[in-house]
Amino acid sequence: DAGITQSPRHKVTETGTPVTLRCHQTENHRYMYWYRQDPGHGLRLIHYSYGVKDTDKGEVSDGYSVSRSKTEDFLLTLESATSSQTSVYFCATLRQGRQYFGPGTRLTVT
Amino acid sequence: QKEVEQNSGPLSVPEGAIASLNCTYSDRGSQSFFWYRQYSGKSPELIMSIYSNGDKEDGRFTAQLNKASQYVSLLIRDSQPSDSATYLCAVILPVENSGGSNYKLTFGKGTLLTVNP
Questions:
Q1: Nearest Cα to A27, choosing from A98, A77, A85?
Q2: Close Cβ partners of A62 (under 8 Å, ≥ 6 residues apart)
Q3: Whole-angstrom Cα distance, residue B22 to residue B87?
Q4: pLDDT class for B30, splitting at 50, 70, 90?
Q5: Could you tell me if A103 lies within 8 Å of chain B, comparing CB atoms?
Q6: A43: which chain B residues are within 8 Å (Cβ-Cβ)?
Q7: Around Cβ B68, how many Cβ atoms within 10 Å?
Q8: Could you tell me which chain B residue has the CA closest to the CA of A102?
């Protein structure tokens, strides 16, 4: 357990509104990741970070942005939410080859 | 395109049987391989890691790696109903142009295993 929390755990929002999901970790892990998980698609990487202010795009980054101003926090922002972004979002860290996952955020865009 | 492929299942086995889960990967540069278990509505949890060719055993779980065939498998002996979950295969790769200092995991889509009492 890497002490990863995500907030909010559940959110319902309307199309076109901005949404920010927060990931917080207490273990000082360098690498942090945002995934989305959808039926039939498994876990897909959105963005990742390998240090403060160092981020990069994953395979499904369109429509998402991230920021990491502190080691312990990694924010995922949907600038203008769309129904296709309805999903479960997992934050994760990586240390010594092992990935630790947060509890997930279930986001519904109506 | 770097990919990790798994049969989506569902795989159904009777209690006490051996469950065999398979995974293939496309990038020969892959060095580390992982199996995660995910219960419905929960986050994935690591159950096995394997780095070199051959078998690695941990309790009822055995991971097998064959780099020449780009194949990794997970065997679950004496399967229990509590093993019913989705099993995700994952491969760690260095990020391109990072000089080997940054890493990311690529996951398969997962195999749903059901163990019937």
A1: A98
A2: none
A3: 10
A4: confident
A5: yes
A6: 44, 88, 107
A7: 7
A8: B43
